[in-house]
Design a protein that fits this description.
Layout lengths: L18 H11 L8 H8 L4 H14 L17 E7 L6 H9 L4 E6 L6 E7 L2 H15 L3 E4 L14
Length: 163
């Protein structure tokens, strides 16, 4: 199934989800099975089959319902480092600066906010020094000041958003 529809985020994204999409999203928010055939395990829990689960996930990625599907690693627990960063970007330069920021493999994601600091992104690397290097390079390439906001305290919020 090759579904290339893109969701307009100004409309209700849930309107584009069928019942299996909703069940799959609800299940995956609670965790991913660590076993030899995780998608088969998920399929069993949904009274479905592995191929259908994989097709549904790919279709949601293609349509933009999901922006990514994969593990989230805690860089600090693995000996690395990460930080939240932000930039005040003139609106007419937003796409240009986004391309600069996104060109760094250490940038995990980048998003626009309605705030003076209107571009926010996460940098993950093997060391705090590497984060500093990336920030300096972004500043040099963009001509804009990056505000670095490293984590001071960690809070775990068990967020579950049923769909």
């Amino acid at each position: 199934m090759n579904d290339n529809r893109k969701i307009n985020l100004n409309t209700d994204p849930l309107a584009f989800l069928d019942e299996l999409d909703k069940q799959l999203l609800n299940l995956l928010q609670k965790g991913f099975p660590v076993c030899e055939q995780p998608f088969l395990e998920i399929a069993k829990q949904l009274n479905s089959d592995e191929a259908t689960v994989l097709t549904q996930l790919q279709a949601m990625l293609n349509r933009g319902v999901l922006s990514r599907f994969g593990p989230m690693f805690d860089a600090a627990c693995l000996g690395g480092a990460f930080t939240l960063a932000a930039i005040e970007v003139p609106e007419q330069r937003f796409d240009e600066v986004a391309d600069i920021v996104n060109s760094f493999e250490q940038v995990a994601h980048n998003y626009q906010r309605q705030h003076r600091l209107n571009m926010w992104f996460v940098i993950g690397s093997e060391s705090a020094d590497e984060i500093t290097e990336v920030i300096v390079q972004i500043e040099q390439k963009s001509g804009l000041k990056v505000v670095n906001m490293p984590k001071e305290h960690e809070f775990f919020v068990g967020l579950y958003l049923p769909v």
